[in-house]
Amino acid sequence: MQESSIRSIIIDDDKTIGDILKDLISKEHASVEVFNDSFEAIEFIKRNPFDIVITDLVMPKVDGLEVLSQAKAINPEVVVIIVTGHGSLESAIEAIRGGAYDYIKKPFKLQEMEIVFNNAVERVKLIRENARLLKELENAYAQLVAVKEEKEKGDYERETEQERARLNFFASNRPGLHLVRNASTGESNYFEQLQNIAALKKDGLLTEKEFKTLKTQIIKYLESSTTY
Question: C-alpha 160: how far from its chain's center?
């Protein structure tokens, strides 16, 4: 059975009707299982995936409304068609409220059943397509979240690195400070160092305390190198 095929179950205690319905709805894209015992049918659908259930309403052991309830509990998206020769307005309302897709009274024309079944097939296809699109949206959302988290992680790491550089006066990756750290001695160079740290303070890369500490060190070097 292909994965895209429609999986259908017919439940009717009248074997003749079950066989007629199977011949009617058996198509290349639809697999069909027939049960004349509703209890056995429920046990089957508990163990096997399915899309469409066509069930008689009045049956021994388990009636059609119970089949509807059990099928919906197992697969909320299942399409259930109720068929009965003992129909009433009350039973029809109860079936629809229970989640039945359609309700057909016996005797019915084969063309009528074929139309209802084909509509049910289209609904199953729509449900599958919606599920596929939802999955794609979920995947796209997960990818967006991952990208956002990666970006935030990168931003955090960059901010952490900048903060680490700010706390280390002579960090090698700090803009401009390599001029202070690697500068050769000489009065002109010391003045250049003072200009560099002043620019760093202006750009917000040095706090007032850091600026004063560096400035004091540079002036101390300048004073010690001056010959009177």
Answer: 33
What pLDDT does 172 receive? 43
Spatial neighbors of 198 by CB under 8 A, at least 6 apart, are 211
Q: What is the pLDDT of residue 187?
A: 52
- For the stretch 48-59, pLDDT in tens is 989 999 999 888
**Helix crossing, 89-97 with 64-74: angle to 10°?**
10
Which domains are assigned to the chain?
6-130 (3.40.50.2300), 168-225 (no CATH)
Tokens of 51: 């899309």
Task: For residue range 5-27, list pLDDT tens digits in order.
Answer: 889 999 998 899 899 899 888 87
Place of tokens 């019915």: 108
Written as one letter, the residue type at 27 is: K
| DSSP annotation string for 44-102 | HHHHS--SEEEEESS-SSS-HHHHHHHHHHH-TT-EEEEEESS--HHHHHHHHHTT-SE
Q: What is the DSSP string of 89-115?
A: HHHHHHHHHTT-SEEEESS--HHHHHH
What are the CA-CA distances from residue 45 to residues 52, 68, 158 (Å)? 11, 11, 57
- Alpha-carbon distance 16 to 125, whole Å? 29
Average pLDDT, the chain: 78
pTM beyond 0.85, yes or no: no
Residue 168 in tokens: 């280390």
Mean pLDDT of all residues in 124-148: 82
